[in-house]
Amino acid sequence: MTAELNVPLVGHTALITGSTTGMGQDIARAFARSGARTAIHGLGDEDSIAELVNELSQLSGQECFHFAHDLSDARQGGALVEAASAKIGYIDILINNAGVQFVSGIEDFPAEQWDRLLAVNLGAAFHAIKAVWPSMKSNGWGRIVNTASTLAFSGEFGKTAYVAAKHGMLGLTRTVALEGAELGITCNAICPGWVYTPLAAAQVKAKAAALGLSLEQTTKEHFLSEMPTKRFVEPAEIASAMLFLCSDSARSITGVALPVDGGISA
Questions:
Q1: Same structural domain for residues 223 and 112?
Q2: Hey, which of 11, 44, 69, 165 would disulfide with 122, CB 3.0 to 4.6 Å?
Q3: Cα separation of 107 and 105, whole Å?
């Protein structure tokens, strides 16, 4: 397993969207272990979420909070920040990690899925950033990290909405970085390759069923074939990159789209 970066973030409060499942859980654990007070967001089984909240509280030594705003209404991104700020007091680290997927050719792509993906994957991040901006500006310190994708640089058949949203996330990241440059606020994007999350697992399963192949063969031939490392990126690697970008050592790094992709972009 990949060793997680050790970045002390005691005294900071991190809100991580999309953190009750998949990669988001690992990101939340990494920030809690670094001493940051954590607020998690997402839907899921109530008992499992309660266990995660308890785990994060123990890891950080501070109370963790959970919020369940539905980001398919993009404006709930702002409402989430307002609710978390009211409960915790302030947020100076915002991780926009929430994401959903839908795969279909453009001719049959449902309009409601386009709206849902653009809201969750892009619109909610805009509203969350807008809501957290005044306090970060007032404090003269803020870190915003957006989860983009290698598909922020290219297209892929059947992923119209996802690709459009991730391209938009880079534009949002770069513009916010410019506006925050003199305010002590950085904004960067992480662009993962294939990370084996529930979202990726569902795509592997669907592809295998469509092709009549085993999961192992589908993974090797249709997912990892484009990755020079021939392995999935580990969630801890994504978390470490985010931790670094939130550290004072990275205060001059802003507006960056950082690939963590096993060499795809090479």
A1: no
A2: 165
A3: 6
